[in-house]
Amino acid sequence: MDRVECVFASDGTCIGQCSSGNARTCQFDGVKDCVCTCGFNFKGNCVGWCPAADSTYKYDDKSSNCICVASIEEKNEPGSVDPPLPSYFSVMSYNLSLATQSNDLRGTEYDFVQACQAAHTSSTVCTTLMAEWLNKDNIHPTLIGIQETVRPQTDNFINALGNYDIYQSSVTNRATVVVAADRSSVGLGKVIHDKGWAGEGRSRIAVYFKDHNILAICNHFPHNWTTKIYTQRLNKYSRILERILNKMNINWKTLNIFFMGDFNDHKYQLISRNSKNQFIKFLNTTLYVDDGDNAYPNTCCYPNYEFKSDYILSSKKPTYFGRIISDVGGYKRRINEDPPMGSDHDPVIAFYD
Fold first, then answer.
1. How many C-beta atoms lie closer than 10 Å to residue 190's C-beta?
2. CA–CA distance, 247 with 249 (Å, rounded to integer)
3. Are 32 and 155 within one domain?
4. Is 251 domain-assigned?
5. Number of domains forming the structure of the chain
6. Tell me: the pLDDT tens digits for 122-166?
């Protein structure tokens, strides 16, 4: 819990900043301390943390502020089997770029790394700046799926955004994938599958969170799969997870599923180019691609951003989704601006009520 910058002023009021975790404000805890507690995020929603175990946050009409109040125990209706999602829930997927984090002029990231090096000597600085910028603007997703992870750079990136549990795939070909989770929102996770795509050198990981019946999946797909191969391999992956969940006595038909990744379908073998209301079937569940009103944004890759491929597929339609750099908050930061930061991919984020 971040209490270092949140202190009593000489007049007895609480002052200071809360720089880590969800958007939080410095407030008196009602007992004896100034603490970083709930506040507004960049969308104007109440998010954050409350000091008492039996309290939660909500918007207060009288004070026009986010406040902590005593929780009311919620019970599922008779016949209900799904634990509800937390009241504030967002998911981010980001290909963080192996070459950028490694300061390595190689592959499709060559131009991006070169531009970062010109501005900062080392392209690793671009990764750091992106984390600082996301944190400054209170972008603190509940779940994060990262592809092309490199230690310690990826861990530093995640830790700059807040207190996350990091579940990293053991399958690596120089880089791997990670699911990061805010334990205060989703509880402790369990890795239930950690094997790469056979013969492809690409990693994937599936993590189950019991508290809210969440299955978080992060994948880095190979290039140049045909539609037929996508269908065959995803169907096989679905059957593998189904068997695992059955052995764990988990009702996989009622899961909250979030499938994050760089799907590399640059020829739109999986998701159509400009269509809306798109979905795929996985674990016998409809996974939605968009909110039904807007087509998915292009996120790949610098400098032209001609392709989609960075997706968050979910069993619940998002209430909002977008490409963080150019969509969320009206920001239009690109590599040719000062300072260049991030990756040759844009991150995507989705929000769920």
1. 11
2. 5
3. no
4. yes
5. 2
6. 888 888 888 887 877 677 899 999 999 988 889 888 988 888 999
pLDDT for 257-310, tens place per residue? 999 999 999 888 888 766 677 888 999 899 998 877 777 888 888 877 888 889
The pTM score is 0.73
The residue range of the domain holding 62 is 6-70
37 and 122 part of one domain: no
Q: Give ∠ CA 185-187-192 in degrees, rounded to 5.
A: 130
Cis upstream peptide for 318 (omega within 30°): no
- Determine the 3-state secondary structure of 62 from DSSP: coil
Q: What is the DSSP letter of 295?
A: P
**Do 159 and 30 share a structural domain?**
no
208 and 328 share one domain: yes
Helix, strand, coil percentages (3-state) for the chain, rounded to 5, are 20, 30, 50
Burial class (CB in 10 A: 0-12, 13-18, 19+), 74: exposed
Of residues 134, 147, 163, the one with CA closest to residue 93 = 147
